[in-house]
UniProtKB/TrEMBL annotation:
WD repeats lie at residues 347-386. The keyword Repeat applies. Keywords: Repeat, WD repeat. It comes from Xiphophorus maculatus. It comes from the Eukaryota. Residues 1-13 have a biased composition (Basic and acidic residues). This is F-box and WD repeat domain containing 9.
Amino acid sequence: MSEVRVNQHETESGKGVPGGLDQRKSPCTDRSNMELQGLSPPVSSPSAVPSPSPSASAESSDLLLLPWEILTHIASYLPAHCLINVLPKVCRTLSTVGEDTTAWQLRAQRLIGSRVRFPVGPRDDFDWPTSCLEMEQLITFWAGEVQHVGKQSEEEMDLVRLEERGQVAEGHENEGGEGLARVGVAAQEVAYGADEGIEVVMEVENDEIQPVLDVDQVEQLREGLEGRLEVDAAALIEDGRMELNADVGPDAAQHDQNDFAYPRHLNDRGRVEMVQDQPSRSPSPPPALECITLPSSHIALVNSVLLLGGKGAVCATGSRDYDVKLWDLEEGSNGTLLHTLGRKGDFTSHQGWVWCLASEGPLLASGSFDSTVRLWDLQAGGTNRGLIRTGSAVLCLSCQNDVLLAGTFNKRINMYDTRAAEPLIKSVHLHGNAVMCLAADDTYIVSGSEDCTVAVYDCRAMKALKKIKLSSYLSSMSYSGYEVWAGDKKGMLHSFSMQTGTLKLLSRFDVGHTALVTGIHKSAGCLYTCSTDKTVKIHIPSGPPRTLCTLCHAGVVHGLSVEAGIVAVSTGDETVNIWRPRK
């Protein structure tokens, strides 16, 4: 017992610490020090039988006696999920390691590099641990995916990159050039490297947006684009691979831009086109992911897809065949159809194209070109819960608690109480054309219209706050924290800051999409986009975004949904692809 007291006294006085380091620099409290001392095993007497190896508690005690700076440095090499989910269960001292905001910021910088801005929006109350966790998972699942989804071998991909940068001698022929880069793809390798996009900062003056670029940036961007266009155009002409699909016909390009980009032909069953094309082939999944294709059940194009339940175990799909279907993604190897939703006696879920879906808790809402929103009870197996008549085609939906928001073709945003017999709360007219997308929280609504404006509305004060004029209309939108990200008709991404009702345009990015952005999902550390250019892109949401991979599909991609690391994509035919971590 005397030896135990002596050793504890030496530890408290700092003499027992290697190198004579002063423990008073550690942020641990006296109570924590007592707990740490309790972890130390009693020192055995000389007569006792020596242990063949140090005990686990002794190793833990030695680790916790290290200076705080060294302890946090060691923790920086652990995965984010370990710091967040594992260390707090070990002891109180280790739980404080994950509370160091500076350490998380340094971790984020190591993940994305120092030449990009992160976060793009306000840093106030930014969730650094979650962002690092999501970025690490995103990189683990998707980095290197370009090696799996492209039609080219690794050598051919390297050759194309060299040609794009003008580093291949003239006259060098490219064998198997089927996967050559598109004309007009983003000049993202010019300034930041192959995995990053080009940022164009914009300012708004008198409702007009002005680019903010210095002379060197403009010249660098111009030279890079000219070089890329010359190489791409020459390669495409040589291979004869212009953007015309011989199987569909010479009107395919125009069809993709007009028909798929929010058609105006409403309530016309006879106009549902069944495009006869070669069956699409899902890109091969990376090692950490598996890709499944839901069994063919819809008989027309799937316009909308939505993952439900918080864990991505259930998926809802809305199609131009007028139906809404529920799928169990955990049943069977490729998922199982649970229900085709509809009222008793109805042959279909709606009487027009199902264009958008939204959910909150057990409520699922589907918006259609038949000028209605139908409500479905997920807890009751998708039974009909109500019908809301909107007076015009519904192009976008958002659910916030018990309030349902609907953006319509007749330029309005309608607010509904889904519990009331007379659900309409208010209908506001903020735009001069169809409302294409919207996002909201408990206080504010942000909406984008075909009139090329984005507006902010205060739900509590019941008044419009601000409107910004853009050069191209927004087609999809995602609201996360203090940031709003949106995709436009031309394939560009826009980032806005949103604080206390003040919407400010921060930047515009070119990430490589060449047509209308049909879907976007932004969270603290992830950014997913899809487009009618037949691609889905996965990025880190920095400024500019770092594109980790691109998934190429045979048909137009109409929408996506992301939940718990699972990605659902509605492609240009009747199929839905699900990307999820391997079990």
